[in-house]
Amino acid sequence: PGDGVKKAFVRGDRVTAECIMPCGKCYYCKKGLYHLCDDENGFLEGGFAEYMLLPKNALIHKVSKDIPAVEAALCEPLSCSAYAVNQTGMGMEDTVVISGLGAIGMGMLQFALLRNPKRVIGIDTNDALCEIAKKLGAAEVLNPMKEDVTKRIMELTDGVGCDIYMEATGNPASVETGMNCLRKQGMLFIYSVFKKKAEIDLNQISEFKELRVIGGHLSPGAFPYTIDCLEKGKINAKVMVTDIFA
């Protein structure tokens, strides 16, 4: 910076960076939707490393030294979770189902619980992840390899169905499950990246249930909130770490 310009960061600061480097000039960037940039300059890699080289156009955020490094490393995936939950607008009367309890899904579970919904139900085929979700506060955790998930969700909601179904597996079968267990005018929120195309009954969206289908991508604007939650101990990132390579 030139004379008189305050530096945002100084030597020795701990920082993290968003993985996208937007152009700042395209239609979407000017609309504030920089995560949908038409002319992005690529993605940053190395966010889980102790040190990395950041280009001048990287989106950088300061991280308090009070946050342990093993937790600070999860700022990016947790920010994705925070953004996803915020996009649903879930409230205190909602029954929320989160399908997929990996890093993104487990983060969704925790950020959802901060909004005090009626109940949060987790779905995963990994028993170890299901146990972690229970400890974090999930009202119930279901394993589709062991039980009929749709049937159980309908039982828990007195036959009405869940209000919000958040897809975080990348498995097309999970999308179909969501459409089946959602109530009429419920919300299907899809955050995953899929390798296969999904075959769905479009009548579930229109004629039968009038569903709202919303997609999510990256974590625009969510880093500061996520870092604040980590600083205040509102999010348990440590429980999500299985291995450390150093």
TrEMBL record:
Domain Alcohol dehydrogenase-like C-terminal: 103-228
Species of provenance: human gut metagenome
Cross-referenced Pfam families: ADH_N (PF08240), ADH_zinc_N (PF00107)
Keyword Protein biosynthesis: no
Keywords annotated in UniProt: Oxidoreductase
SUPFAM superfamilies: GroES-like, NAD(P)-binding Rossmann-fold domains
Alcohol dehydrogenase-like N-terminal domain residues: 3-61
Keyword Transcription: no
Record-given protein name: Sorbitol dehydrogenase
InterPro entries reported in the protein's UniProt record: ADH-like_C, ADH-like_N, GroES-like_sf, NAD(P)-bd_dom_sf, Zn_alcohol_dh
One of the record's GO molecular function terms: oxidoreductase activity
